Input
Amino acid sequence: MRAVARPIAITRLAVVLVLVAGCVAPSPSASPSPSGVLDATGSPATSSNPSPPGGPTPAANAVEVSSTVTERSGVVADLHDRFWWTDAEVGQVGTTAEMRVPTDERVVVAGNGIAISARRSADDPFHGPLDLVAREIGTGTMLREISTSLTDVDAVLVGRQLFWTGLILGSQDDGQDGGVWTADLDSEETPKAIVNAGAQLSTQLSGRHLEISATRQTIAAVLVDGFGPRQTDVIDVGSLAPRSRLEGLGAVAITDDLFLASDEGPTDAPYWGYGITARSFSSGAVRWRYPAADKVDRFVLRDAYALGSTIVIQYEWKTGDAVERITARLDPKTGKATILLREDDPGSVEPLTVQASMSSGQHLALTRDYDLGEMLAAGPAVVSTLELASGRLTESAFEIQALFQ
Output
């Protein structure tokens, strides 16, 4: 995926959409596993359609799970229990465990063997409020269903505690902030509002997105109004309570004590010249900036990720007419960068893109296309790994092949 106008910090904050997810598949030498078909509640489903040679065709409202699970070859140990997803499918990186959600749902987030999907109200399948559905990936069993008033949603999962936010569309071109909510998936208690909903927003190109620290102890709920950040609410995961509010500031990645934000460019270039600044959560004070001011016109951020004890960024770097895609890790305390990978952009092949949900604090999982769903629709997704400590790249380390395409 290539930047065409503004840096990722602008496009990422501009619109909060339903996050969608991906699929898992057997290793290259394995055949697709037989699958079990459940209805949307997790009970066995039936279909009047005959089963094709590759397996059963489930009913439209069915949940489908892989009934035979094997280890996926080539996956390093620290990526084994990570998860990937597309709109319709979700699975584990280290095994062929996979689940397909009903066709009227979209996967939002996954982790710890659980997938969260969003389903639009049957009364208004295009703009109606969303229900969130939690299921076990291995069995398809429904854990909990939560009704919301949100028309778009973003979510993170910490253990079995779900946090979500989103937008409430207005009747014209405006909308309302959906607030920030949480619920225990093992309880039927009413969801708790951590940040109240209702603040009026100027356009429907608004809403919130959630960033979470690598320790899973801090969440930043970034509220965008139009094309700019309006405020960031910092949430303590342990107490399920707000910690602070930062007015007029956004975030593209966070640790427990600082947030990384994209700056406004000093030039009129369409997207070159936007550096990144790390600020303290407690005071908003600047900790460091990257790159140096005299080099910022050569830089555009693609994305940033908090992984383990470091921050990983991918960016484009211009030297004359040549452009490189660079993957680097930043020391959160000092901002010192260690370049891990350089690639020509454009080159003979697409540059590698980090798949954050599949990565860890020790290894990055990278693919040649940002959109995992598009790759899987065309065939197996080839995944390379990059060791953060050494910068050692293992190309084509393993493959993911969608079982239920």
Summary: Confidence is low (pLDDT under 50) at residues 1-35, 43-58. The radius of gyration is 21 Å.
